Amino acid sequence: MRGLDGKPPKLSRPAGVSSIPEESPNGEAVIYLGYEVSAGQRTLGQDRKEAICQTPKPQTMKELRTFLGMTGWCRLWIYNYGLLVKPLYALITEGSRDLQWTKDVTHAFNQLKKALMSAPALGLPNRFQKYQAILVEQDDVEIVVTNIVNPASFLSGSTGEPVIHDCLETIEATYSSRPDLKDTPLEDAETWFTDGSSYVVSGRRHAGYAVTTSREVIESGAITN
C-alpha cells in the first residue's frame, strides 16, 4: 500500500470502508471485508474475531456448519487449521442429529477460538519482487502435485550411475509380435497383397477379405462373426 514515491497513499472512505489511522504504524489503515489492511500487512478485524469467539457451543448440525463456515473464512490466520477442526468435521460425517460433544470435540472447539484470538498479521504480496506465474487456459489441463516423484531428490546434485541400454533392442522386445520375425526382405520372393472391406445391408453387416498377387487372386471369402 505504497505509492510510487514510497509513501502510503491517502485512502478515501467508500461505502463499507472505514479509516482507522490510529491503529496503523504508518498512519494509514482501512477495514475492508473484515480485514484490517495497513502498509504491507493485513490482519483480522477485532470485531470479527470477537463475534466468532462469542459464538456459543453449537447444538444443531446447522449451527455447527455455520460456525465452521465462519472459522473457515479465517483459516489463513490459524496455524494447523485442518488439524484443529478435524474433530468438529467428524461430527458432520457421523450424520447424527444430536451432536455428541466429547472431550476431544470440546477441546478442539476451545482451541479454535483461542487460535483465532491470537491470529498473527499476514504480509501482503509484493508484486515488485521476482516471481514466476503459470497460466493454464485449457479446460482439460490441470496442474497438480505428483506423489510419484519427490522434487527434493533433484536438489542433491548427484545424478547417479548412467543407465546403459540398447534402444533398438528395447523397441523390438516391446513392439515385436515374435522375436524371430524380421522385416528383412527375402531375395526373389513373391509379393502378396491383402485387403478387406465391409458394408451394411438392411441393418446387417457383411465383411470379406482377399489375398492376391499383382496378377491373380490367391484366396477370397466372407468373414463371419
Automatic annotation (TrEMBL):
Entry-linked PROSITE patterns: RNASE_H_1
GO BP annotations listed: DNA metabolic process
Boundaries of every RNase H type-1 domain copy: 186-225
Source organism superkingdom: Eukaryota
One annotated GO molecular function: nucleic acid binding
InterPro entries documented for this protein: DNA/RNA_pol_sf (IPR043502), Rev_trsase/Diguanyl_cyclase (IPR043128), RNaseH_domain (IPR002156), RNaseH_sf (IPR036397), Viral_Replic_Matur_Polypro (IPR051320)
Region called Disordered, residue ranges: 1-22
Xref: SUPFAM superfamilies: DNA/RNA polymerases
Name used for this protein in its record: RNase H type-1 domain-containing protein
